[in-house]
């Protein structure tokens, strides 16, 4: 069933007003732009080059309500001041996704980019009503499959900060991709805390909310993201090394971002956009339902599952309130749509099981 946007009396900004979406070429951001456009808003996206802006415009169908502004460096002085002018709301989704092993390449520019958005919002004047930041569940906790713990508004991933500060260089190299993920998480912790410190200190005239998504799956536009690459790997017989954590459909995530920007009752919230935990056994089971004849790797029957609890109710409530959804989309349907996206990019080709003799 298709669920369409249905405005309520709690609209913070009128339809037809402009929402700024930074880093609009990214997997989540392009869906935020798409959902905002479908909901009747204008969108101005920031990109690092005009070529990328043209690509995003084409991906969105070149609507008249979309425009882009080139911001080559989000950490540059007054990076977003021009792009912010005339916007009624802003969603800061721009991030550094090259997973650098050097904290100095990740943490300071991520923090500076977030503060630049807030500075630009202050300079924009009274018409700017809200700012939303994309953080991560990694800003609250790292994956710990099989361990019971709770993630809520006041949960912070100080363990990632300590690890990044204290790990010697030889150990960093040995940790490989896990080290880079901890640097990414540390950057998200520092940036989000900087946002909340700014709000507490400056008491800005606009509302601020933060969305902390789980791992995004789904039928993505443009970049297929980490999850799409992992599903492609499964179609090729490779089980990813990523541990169990919470997932969310990318459209659900985008809609939660839009709702955080436009809902006048949502203020100062840390919104965990988390559907349910997954592991690769569950993903492979869902893929078998979507492609019964697919030759997929045999999952580890003893693979641990994330058994933490997360304060994710507000995200589900916003999906019900503004789109009439029963809640989050669910792992099975989201994986089905991820598989459909992957097959579309492979002309429908995948390895099939040999029939039994």
UniProtKB/TrEMBL annotation:
SUPFAM superfamilies documented for this protein: NAD(P)-binding Rossmann-fold domains (SSF51735)
One Pfam entry name: Epimerase
The record, for InterPro entries, names: Epimerase_deHydtase, NAD(P)-bd_dom_sf, NAD(P)_dehydrat-like
Keywords for the protein's UniProt record, in alphabetical order: Oxidoreductase
Q: Name one GO molecular function term.
A: oxidoreductase activity, acting on the CH-OH group of donors, NAD or NADP as acceptor
Query: Where in this chain does the record put each NAD-dependent epimerase/dehydratase domain?
Result: 19-202
- What family name appears in the similarity comment? Belongs to the NAD(P)-dependent epimerase/dehydratase family. Dihydroflavonol-4-reductase subfamily.
Question: Could you tell me what this protein is called?
Answer: NAD-dependent epimerase/dehydratase domain-containing protein
Q: What is the lineage of its organism?
A: Eukaryota, Fungi, Dikarya, Ascomycota, Pezizomycotina
């Amino acid at each position: 069933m298709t669920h369409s946007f249905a405005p309520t009396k709690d609209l913070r900004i009128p339809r037809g007003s402009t929402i700024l979406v930074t880093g609009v070429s990214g997997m989540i951001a392009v869906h935020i732009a798409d959902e905002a456009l479908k909901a009747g808003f204008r969108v101005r996206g920031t990109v690092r080059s005009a070529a990328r802006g043209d690509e995003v415009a084409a991906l969105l169908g070149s609507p008249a309500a979309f425009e882009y502004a080139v911001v080559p460096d989000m950490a540059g002085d007054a990076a977003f001041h021009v792009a912010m002018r005339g916007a009624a709301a802003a969603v800061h989704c721009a991030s550094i996704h090259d997973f650098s092993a050097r904290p100095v390449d990740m943490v300071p520019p991520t923090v500076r980019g977030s503060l630049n958005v807030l500075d630009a919002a202050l300079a924009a004047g009274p018409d700017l009503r809200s700012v939303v930041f994309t953080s991560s569940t990694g800003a609250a906790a790292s994956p710990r499959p099989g361990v019971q713990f709770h993630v809520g508004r006041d949960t912070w991933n100080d363990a990632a900060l300590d690890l990044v500060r204290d790990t010697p260089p030889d150990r960093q190299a040995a940790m490989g991709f896990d080290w880079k993920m901890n640097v990414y998480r540390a950057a998200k912790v520092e940036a989000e805390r900087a946002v909340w410190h700014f709000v507490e200190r400056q008491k800005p005239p606009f509302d601020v909310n933060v969305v902390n998504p789980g791992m995004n799956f789904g039928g993505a536009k443009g970049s297929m993201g980490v999850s799409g690459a992992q599903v492609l790997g499964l179609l090729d017989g490779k089980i990813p090394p990523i541990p169990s954590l919470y997932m969310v459909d990318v459209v659900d995530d985008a809609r939660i971002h839009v709702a955080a920007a436009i809902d006048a009752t949502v203020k100062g919230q840390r919104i965990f956009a988390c559907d349910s935990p997954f592991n690769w056994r569950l993903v492979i089971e869902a893929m078998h339902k979507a492609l019964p004849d697919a030759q997929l790797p045999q999952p580890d029957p003893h693979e641990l599952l994330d058994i933490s609890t997360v304060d994710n109710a507000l995200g589900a409530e916003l999906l019900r309130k503004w789109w009439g959804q029963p809640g989050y989309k669910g792992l099975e349907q989201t994986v089905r749509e991820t598989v459909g996206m992957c097959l579309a990019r492979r002309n429908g080709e995948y390895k099939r099981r040999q029939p039994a003799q």
